[in-house]
């Protein structure tokens, strides 16, 4: 998942997708059995320069869908529900939050909410999902009086209502969902429940067997370690 607070990215992938993403939009790329992609500053923005600020999050596929066909879906900002809750602007990117439901299709229960706090605003986060966390992108935030620093992520206690408070304003991401259905392994850009599958992907990448991104000429070699 790619979500921007500021800036812009041009996404291209081996499916032939060419899609610009701007703040408020969300890109959801499902790798499945394999996909290649690039993300670059759009040509029209490169000369003038820009500030880039956003988040990319990886969501593990359930076992049954690990080798599904790769897909890409773009959700423009206008398609994602936004609401003001007690001084906090919440954009529900995936799942549901306080009765607000995202149109984004997921393969497992997923929570992903961009929250912008006004000064002296408090947001209560219920235990609607088995696993929950909050990542503070910028500003100030306390979790039931415990201070969270910008760039930190806090795992929220299970089965408890938690109060997030910002004295001076903040940008944060609420995230979580259902527990994984088993262990996952990650090496570089490869994720799988089977180590052997990752080894096979490493060999395929080294041998140039992955589909190319149309229009791209650069190649990133497989890391040595």
Give your account of this protein's structure:
The protein is built from two helices and 21 strands. The model has no long low-confidence stretch (mean pLDDT 95). The chain has two domains: 110 residues, Jelly Rolls; 103 residues, Jelly Rolls, CATH 2.60.120.10. The strands form six sheets. The chain has a six-stranded antiparallel β-sheet, with no helix packed on it. Strands 6-1-4-7 form a four-stranded antiparallel β-sheet, with no helix packed on it. The longest helix is centred in the C-terminal third of the chain and has 12 residues. The chain is mainly beta. Strand 15 and strand 16 form a beta hairpin.
From the structure above, extract its key features.
mainly beta; Jelly Rolls; four-stranded antiparallel β-sheet; 2 helices
Count of strand segments: 21
The residue fraction in helices comes out at under 10%
DSSP summary: helix tally: 2
Biggest sheet strand order reads 8-9-12-19-14-17
The assigned CATH architecture of the largest domain is: Sandwich
Low-confidence sequence ranges? none
Characterize the overall form.
Answer: globular
Describe the main β-sheet briefly: 6 strands, antiparallel
| Total individual domains | 2
